[in-house]
Amino acid sequence: MKKISLTNQILIAMVVGMIVGSIIGPRIEPLKILGDIFLRLVQMSVVVMIMGAVIEAVGSLNPKELGKFGWKLAVWFMGGTFVASILGIAVGFLIKPGSSVTMEIPSNVELSPTTEISTYETILNFFPNNIVTSMTEGNMIQVIIFSILFGLGMSLLSVHTDLGTIKAGIHQFNQIIVQMVTMIMKMAPIGIFALLAWVTGTIGFEVMIPLGKFIFAMALATAVYLIIWIVLTATICKVNPILLAKKLTRMTVMAFTTTSSAITLPVKMEDQEKLLGVSKRVSGLVGPLGMAMNSNGLAIFLAIASITLSQFYGLEFGVKEAISTVLLSTLATLGTVAVPGGGLVALAIVIPSLNLPLESIGILAGIDWFSGMFRTVLNVDADATIAMILAQGEGELDHQLLNTPMDDIP
């Protein structure tokens, strides 16, 4: 009997979890602990996995190569996010999600007050003053800044000093972390079953009704962007777009069901290397950096959310507001924590600039899990395809592996 793949196990768990949750209802809540344990087990290793991967990748580079590669990375990340924001605005105007919304802000939603953060503080907060504190708080962008500098220092020092032992130690440490995460991922079907059962049982499907147009707008924008991006990547990397889409399936399912780029990171990096033909060097750089800095799905979410809330309150949303939203959506995605709920944090940055009340975020808080499914898929798949494009430019894309059918890969 053929063994059921992990991807299919997760899909089955997702469907069964939603059915069980809808039948049992709110009484299913105690089961959520299984999902929370799964998320914590994966998250506990994310910070050190990112740190180790970036240090190893940067430490093996020539400093001149890193500078050139870094500029390419920034152009693709920022360019893709900017285009995603524009697409979000276009879909928002087309669907008009907030034009028919009449629900009031939930009285039970409590949001902590937010103060406007200056550009000076925003830039300064990218840099850590205590790396241990940054790791404890899970501040990914600060951890990555430290890791890049550590790896760069190792790269410069290795020119005239033998660092073979420490490089080997870091490599072995990274392998142990990956092996640990691989073991934990076997729990994914159980964890995802518990989480989806809880969401369906406690929130219910009815939450989709008043904001169904918003969810539809997110789904439409995600589908359009993915189709365009996959075709573009397939053209650049010379692969059949249908085959490429199939090879993105496992990470797509993981992103959709967990709504977390951080949780999906191990799967994404493994598939980049074993299915998409991306070299370990490029994968080790683009994977962690993309998780923290490349948020196309979040940019689309912020753009559509801004239009939706403006329409809900009957406020004008013209060209000026659209330009402001595109710029803010692009910048607000930088360094946003890649865990469930991060979208509401970024939304708190954009909403005040449009003269919308901060508590209006509560309107979308109830369906954040569902909108998070779509934005996480776009974040993860865009990271993987950008890794392919950069690997192609560096001559480090294995075309034979990339063009190998799924059934022929062991």
In the CATH hierarchy, the architecture is: Orthogonal Bundle
Q: What is CATH's topology name? A: Proton glutamate symport protein
What is the CA-CA span between the terminal residues?
Answer: 17 Å
Specify the structural class.
Answer: mainly alpha
- CATH H-tier superfamily: Sodium:dicarboxylate symporter
Computed Rg? 21 Å
Key attributes of the depicted protein:
single chain; 410 residues; mainly alpha; Proton glutamate symport protein; 19 helices
Outline the structure in words:
The structure is a single chain. The chain is mainly alpha-helical and 410 residues long. It has one domain (6-408): Proton glutamate symport protein (Orthogonal Bundle), CATH 1.10.3860.10. It has 19 helices and no strands. Helix 3 crosses helix 15 and helix 15 crosses helix 16.
